UniProtKB/TrEMBL annotation:
Keywords of the record: Signal
Organism: Nocardia jiangxiensis
SUPFAM superfamilies (alphabetical): Periplasmic binding protein-like I
Domain of life, per lineage: Bacteria
Leader peptide range in chain numbering: 1-24
Protein name: ABC transporter substrate-binding protein
Family classification: Belongs to the leucine-binding protein family.
Domain Leucine-binding protein: 41-381
Length: 398
């Protein structure tokens, strides 16, 4: 009897220990998964930290890290921390897809991606099929118009860029572009293809003539021949639609060829350093965010987390800050037991949200029919004669 009693006690003790181990394991999973039932909210960032697109993408990753650190340091969201994990996709679409597959297997609440448009395109279907919200400044317009579940743009779309370019030309030409000549100097890119198509439609509908479109690939060593062709058109406006370094080459080549037209760039050509290198009072570039150097509170946070050098020289750093705070606001609405599906709905309820520290020109107005966070732009300019930067009046591009 004693032996049987001892055996029963051993079985009960073993079952109890096993139960405790299972509970502990489940608890650990709940803390680290994306269900929102543990002690943190898991968000995974996939970004081109290295490779060809790192100069554009890495500042966004640094800025969302900074935002999350700041959010966590001030109490987190709903009493919980945001667990941010960053994966380097190395400027490769295939590696981005592999990273997204690995991230989704770990059950995050949301994915964030800072990359070229090809990188974002490689994971959009995966995120949608997994029902995990994907926030990125590089989504294609076809995935946003109309708004699709789980896909959210945290910067301007190509359609918005085109609308802003058209409206600024209209303003500069005293309200009418009729009879004006426009040329285009543009990188070969699907995103830029949409800008060109949309801007051309708007301009020609208003009576302007798009005389020539000069395309190029990067890296760009010279644009002299194409600049000469543009000069022969004697345009009133040249749309310079490229990335940071090549835009400098294009603009300088246009000036050297004797082009005196207004030159208009997109956000990838709007950084202060880019405008200073171009050194032309004729060059303006649009952005949805002010310069970090004009935001002392933002810079104070950057300094606190040793991110100043990473975020102060790039316009794209602001996308990370905006994304971090939009996510925090949506998590607040979603609650402590948030799921990725519920987060999609919560994101659609972030309306009239002002991003902290003045990091956006206009409020974020997301809804079930609008998954684009940016809606107001300004054009930036640098005058080498005075050494001063200036910006235009705001332009709304819903």
């Amino acid at each position: 009897m004693r032996a049987q009693t001892l055996h029963r006690r051993i079985l009960v003790a073993g079952a109890t220990i096993l139960s405790l181990l299972i509970t502990a394991a489940c608890g650990q999973g709940a803390d680290s998964d994306g269900s929102g039932s543990g002690n943190s909210y898991r968000i995974t960032v996939i970004s081109d930290i290295s490779g060809a697109f790192s100069s554009v993408s890495a500042p966004g990753a640094s800025s969302i890290e900074m935002a999350v650190n700041n959010i966590n340091a001030t109490g987190g969201v709903n009493g919980k921390k945001i667990d941010l994990q960053v994966i380097d996709s190395q400027s490769s679409g295939s590696l981005a897809l592999t990273a997204a597959q690995k991230a989704i297997a770990a059950n995050p609440l949301a994915l964030v991606m800072f990359s070229g448009s090809a990188g974002a395109a490689s994971i959009t279907s995966l995120a949608q099929s997994a029902r995990v919200p994907l926030l990125s400044p590089a989504l294609s317009d076809t995935s946003l118009y109309p708004a699709q579940p789980y896909l959210f743009q945290t910067s301007l779309t190509a359609k918005q860029d085109a609308e802003a370019l058209y409206r600024f030309v209209e303003q500069r030409e005293n309200g009418s572009v009729s009879g004006k000549t426009v040329d285009v100097a543009a990188i070969n890119s699907p995103y830029v293809d949409v800008i060109i198509k949309q801007a051309r439609t708007l301009l020609e509908r208003a009576g302007a003539r798009v005389a020539g479109i000069q395309r190029y690939d990067v890296p760009l060593a010279s644009f002299a021949t194409q600049a000469g062709a543009i000069a022969r058109d004697n345009p009133n406006v040249v749309l310079t639609l490229g990335s940071t370094d090549d835009t400098v080459v294009v603009s300088k080549s246009l000036t050297a060829a004797g082009v005196t037209a207004l030159q208009l760039g997109i956000p990838s050509g709007a950084a202060q350093a880019t405008l200073q290198q171009i050194a032309s009072p004729k060059y303006f570039a649009l952005a949805a965010n002010p310069y970090a150097t004009t935001l002392p509170e933002f810079l104070a946070v950057a300094d606190k987390y040793h991110k100043t050098a990473d975020v102060s020289s790039s316009m794209f750093a602001m996308s990370g800050w905006v994304t971090g705070y939009v996510l925090a606001k949506s998590l607040e609405k979603c609650g402590t037991g948030c799921t990725s599906a519920a987060l999609n709905t919560a994101l659609e309820q972030v309306s009239d949200f002002t991003v902290p520290d003045g990091a956006s020109y206009g409020p974020v107005r997301l809804s079930a029919t609008n998954h684009v966070a940016a809606g107001t732009v300004r054009f930036h300019n640098y005058d080498p004669a005075t050494g001063r930067f200036s910006e235009s009046d705001p332009i709304t591009v819903p």
